[in-house]
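Rotation project, supervised by the postdoc (A.L.). Task for the rotation student: set up a whole-complex structure prediction and record inputs and outputs verbatim in this book. Inputs entered:
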Amino acid sequence: MNSIANEPIRLLLIDDEEDFVRVLTKRMARRHIEATPAFSGTEALQRMRQGDFDVAMLDLKMEGMDGIEVLKILKKMVPELPIIMLTGHGCQVSAKDAMANGAFDYLSKPYDFEDLLEKIREAHRSGKDAR
Amino acid sequence: MNPKDIARKAYYHPLRRNIILIIIFVSFIPLIVVSSGILFQMHTIYQEKVRMHLETLVKKHKQNIDHFLVERQNNIAFLVDEYTYDHLSKSENLAALLHKLQGTYGRVFSDIGVVRADGEQVSYAGPYLLESAQYNDAEWFQAAFQADTYTSDVFLGLRGFPHFIVTARRFENGQPWILRATVDFLAFNDVVENIQLGQTGFAYIINQTGALQTRTAGRPVLEGRTYQELFRESDRLSEEDILSVIRQDSSGSELIYVAGMLKDNHWALILQQDKRDAYQDLNRTRNIAILVFGLGGIAIITMALVLSRGMITRIASADQEKEIMSQQIIESGHLASLGELAAGIAHEINNPVAIMVEEAGWIEDLLEDEAFRESESLEEFKRALAQIRKQGIRARDITHKLLSFARRSDSRVDQVDVNDLIKEVVSLSAQQAKYNNVEIDTRLLERLSAIRASQTELQQVLFNLINNAIDALDKQGGTIEVKTWQSSHSEVRFHVRDDGPGIPEANLHRIFEPFYTTKPVGKGTGLGLSICYGIINKMGGDIVVSSKVGEGTCFEVRLPVNAPEPSNENAAADKSYKP
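Outputs recorded:
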């Protein structure tokens, strides 16, 4: 069993805002979180098939397949994967919808970075427990 | 009068006029048709009745007069049959007979005499000195000797007094002679003069030349043209027939003449009556009918006026309600589109802001590195980055407020914290207030009971009240106080008070009326406060205004903690917004 301190958290970061994903990936790397970017729902599913992830971060509103759709498929593929929803929309209705579909938690953009880290760690812990 | 009122007048006036015309037309046409039908029928029947009555009267009197004349002739014929010429040619014998006649028939015969063929009256009994009088020049003389019996027209004769004579002819030794008796004019006249009808009806006898045979007390009688017509007609008629004509006299009034022929069509008994008099009852009935018709007409017109006014009032109020409702829908629609806009903006802004904040965070991360630690400006960098983060969070707060406003653009009833709502509306109005130099002072009671109400609608009320207050202060600046308090557990109160110019008392009672506005044309619909009033009323609450010119205005709202369930009036408005 890997300890949290030793093993990096493998994060699948799904958002169509490329600039956002890039800066966040770099910041995560500095915090021992190995973020794999995916810029669309389709790419996310592809990455998921290719690799193993501890936590996923998923934007609710994306071009093409939207967040809820991706969430449903990911949850089918890996039911124990904790998924944190991100929303720029700030719309509680979609966030609640996501929670109902098995999302671990949700955050509204722009968020407090420390809150995000805390949620990722929490999700990681709960994902490990589930496994 | 504002243009809206003019437009409304232009719409309702013709509508009202049409309603009035339709009511009057529909009511009057049958009334006129039925009334005139009845009147015409009545008129015909009554005219017929009057004619029959007059004819019966004439027939009866004609028979009486005929009978009178025949009887006089029989009297005289009896005498010549009964007595010889010799007997009768003695005046004393005649006097005895006259006495007898007068004893039996009254003073019908005024005198009696025997006249020879040469015209001399051989014997005479009576009040005049007519013995040996010569009659061969008299008009009746020739006619009397040509028939067995003869009745003359009325004439003055030797005595200079109107009378007529009855004669009977006999032969004595081949020589004709006659017994002549004078019928007392007054006695005969009474037979006719006693016929009186209504105010103007009277009877008289006229001969073929148009000479009156009885007295008429100076009243105008049949004119020449008419009697000639009458006698011309009489040739074709039998004794029993009665003629009736209506002719205008020289004065222009219409007269009814009913005539019966007497004395072998030599005389005519004429009953004459003014048409107006004869038809007096009919005219009275007609006048009553016209009066009833007139009153009915007035009633119909009054009804048309009252009914049309009532209808127009109802239509106008229904139209107004509809207009308010559609305005409410439009306002809700405005709020809804504002909500959609807010949601769109929030999304568009949140993403870049998130990136900015992340990039700032990344720079902060990098500043942790050895190379930057020694930098002199490190602290300044950190302050600037913290500022970026702080402003990012501020931007997020603003978009979240917008989003929360957008989410609530519906009229679902929910638990509402009035304080929160006030804070939200005040923060959204803050910019406008600042621009107008207005300070909004909130004094909110802590632990205010939550009420059951529609957030959107209450928000709309607050928006309207605060915006009105800002408008009232009119860029000159001032203070708006928004205060919440509770006087009981079942009721929440708040007021919006400004220290603006106030509202004159004359306008104060109209302030909640729809379309009432003091704002310049195009600025206000005059519906804001009436919508507020409607919303608060629907919630079971109350809104009152108090104002003093020069001191300011205060709108106080009282809301029950447990509002009644709302009706579905705003269903359309509810649907118009989908977050």
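Student's summary: The CA atoms of residues 33 and 120 of chain A lie 9 Å apart.
Supervisor addendum: The two ends of chain A are 11 Å apart (CA to CA).
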